[in-house]
Automatic annotation (TrEMBL):
UniProt-recorded name of the protein: G-protein coupled receptors family 1 profile domain-containing protein
A Pfam family hit: 7tm_1
GO MF: G protein-coupled receptor activity; odorant binding; olfactory receptor activity
Localization: Membrane
Keywords recorded for this protein, A-Z: Membrane, Transmembrane, Transmembrane helix
Length: 322
């Protein structure tokens, strides 16, 4: 009897420790999400305030990454909280969440590829860059392609799930996760193949743009070498960011074995993946364009401190004229 009482006490202490650790991790996550959303909101505000940014394809693509990344962060955070507390929601709502998150997650690396292509046109085809980057028709067509391709994985996952699931299962309550939609083994395998094809296509495009820009950098005059080198570094950063974003799409396959065995280990693995493959790559976007771009950073700094450091409106107007 005494041993039984000791075991119960030990189990209670272990559960208490796990709960405390999860609460600490949850608080850290909320702090990171809050900082991330604040920075993104400030940059979105900066983008919306200046017409010169709203008319430039490069900044429009950047703004799209900010909007998409912010939405991903909020939705993923909600799903993490539901998972930690084992809160169940209706399967239909879970399917909707998973479809939206998957579409947005695929959209980010595709947008990064588009940004690399924009830099390629700017450096390797400078005479055509102005007409291409300011054309509303080309811009609309580009965004249509990005969002159409982004929806392929989520549409496939949805149709594959609907084709095999029992009708009554749609009204059941589950702890929401993309794993609940992998009813059959071939679902996850086919999804992985689609993601692999996307990844290879994007890698090929980025390598093509990088090699072409390297050739252009060697042939460029001394005046243009600085901007060309900066463009190369931007493409390289986008490649790293895209790689991390694509790894995020593969995290369900890393988490799936733990989900079937131990929910606590699963939550730990998911938490680590959130930090490494959601927060970290999405912090690179503000770094690449918000801080490295002199024009954008100048206006951002003005709004960040409410114009209190003597950054005059005259300079902002000068940016608009340029």
């Amino acid at each position: 009897m005494q041993n039984s009482g000791n075991n119960n006490t030990l189990n209670i202490n272990m559960l208490s420790n796990f709960s405390r650790i999860f609460m600490q991790k949850l608080m850290v996550m909320q702090a990171l999400v809050g900082i991330f959303l604040y920075v993104n909101s400030l940059m979105i505000f900066t983008f919306l305030k200046k017409e010169v940014f709203r008319e430039d394809t490069r900044y429009i693509l950047f703004a799209q990454t900010l909007f998409v990344d912010s939405a991903i962060m909020v939705l993923t955070d909600v799903m993490l909280i539901l998972s930690i507390y084992q809160s169940r929601i209706q399967m239909i709502s879970c399917i909707f969440l998973c479809i939206v998150v998957t579409t947005l997650t695929t959209c980010t690396p595709l947008t990064l590829v588009a940004m690399c292509l924009e830099r390629y046109v700017a450096i390797c085809m400078p005479l055509r860059h102005a007409s291409i980057s300011t054309s509303s028709r080309i811009r609309f067509f580009g965004f249509f392609i990005i969002w159409s391709i982004s929806s392929i994985t989520s549409v496939f996952t949805f149709l594959a799930y609907i084709s095999v699931v029992r009708p009554g299962a749609l009204f059941s309550y589950v702890v929401c996760s993309i794993e609940v939609m992998f009813e059959k083994e071939w679902h996850s395998q086919a999804r992985a193949i689609i993601l692999l094809i996307f990844f290879l296509m994007m890698i090929v495009i980025i390598l093509f743009t990088y090699i072409k820009m390297m050739i252009a950098a060697r042939a460029a005059s001394s005046e243009k070498k600085k901007s060309t080198s900066k463009g190369l570094r931007t493409v390289l950063l986008h490649a790293v960011q895209m790689l991390l974003c694509m790894v995020q799409l593969l995290t369900p396959y890393i988490e799936l074995p733990f989900w079937k065995v131990n929910i606590m280990v699963f939550n730990n693995v998911r938490y680590s993946n959130l930090i490494m493959f959601i927060i970290v790559p999405r912090c690179l976007s503000p770094l690449i364009y918000g801080l490295r771009d002199e024009k954008f950073f100048a206006v951002l700094r003005h709004y960040a401190v409410c114009g209190l450091i003597g950054f005059s409106q005259h300079y902002i107007n000068k940016i608009e004229l340029n």
